[in-house]
Amino acid sequence: MSLVLNVIWLVFGGLWLALGYFVIGIVLCVLIITIPFGIAAFRMGLFALWPFGRTVVDKPDAGSPSLVMNVIWFVIAGLWMAIGHVATAFVQAITIIGIPLALANIKMIPVTCFPFGKDIVSADRPPAGAHVYYQQN
Questions:
Q1: I need a surface site. Which of 39, 48, 82, 88 has the fewest CB within 10 A?
Q2: Taking the CA of residue 37 as centre, how many other CA atoms within 13 Å lie in the half-sphere pointing to its CB?
Q3: For residue 122, which phi and psi values (nearest 5 degrees)?
Q4: Which letter, b or e, does each residue of 117-128 get, where b requires 16 or more Cβ atoms within 10 Å of its Cβ?
Q5: Is 132 helix (H, G, I), strand (E, B) or coil?
């Protein structure tokens, strides 16, 4: 089922969202100081490209640097990508087939806004004892 949902997702919005993340990642990698943000954008772009069957868990070693990075990320790119997710969800929700995709888009917004301190893993094998933050089945 994940394969079918991922293909539908890719065609009806996932590709455009992923391209948005990749463009932001390229722009953020131009300056040396924003390279960690660019890497986060690429990681989120890959997740936005193929989200079903994967989950987001908290990193056990994340601390206050992740909090600072998340605040900076939110201002630089998180808010704008969240707006992109809402707009895509609105368009997807117009059709009955698109409603699950729209819900998945809305569920991705917290991870989009605050990606630092999170890790994207397979939904089949989350780490033992990990707090599952987001799961797309």
A1: 39
A2: 24
A3: -65, 140
A4: bbbbeebeebee
A5: strand
pTM for this entry: 0.83
Both tokens assigned to 82: 């969240």
**Which amino acid does the sequence have at 111?**
V
Cα(90)–Cα(123) distance, integer angstroms? 26
Q: Order the strands of the 54-58 sheet from edge to edge.
A: 118-122, 54-58, 132-135
Amino acid identity, position 113 = C
Query: What are the tens digits of pLDDT across the range 99-118?
Result: 988 998 998 998 999 999 88
Q: How does DSSP classify residue 53?
A: T
Q: Which amino acid is at 31?
A: L
- Band the pLDDT of 134: cuts 50, 70, 90: low
Q: Where are the domains of the chain?
A: 2-121
pLDDT at 136 over 60: no
pLDDT tens digits, one per residue of 35-76: 999 999 999 999 999 888 888 888 878 788 889 999 999 999
Distances (CA, A) of 115 to 5, 22, 82, 120: 23, 15, 12, 10
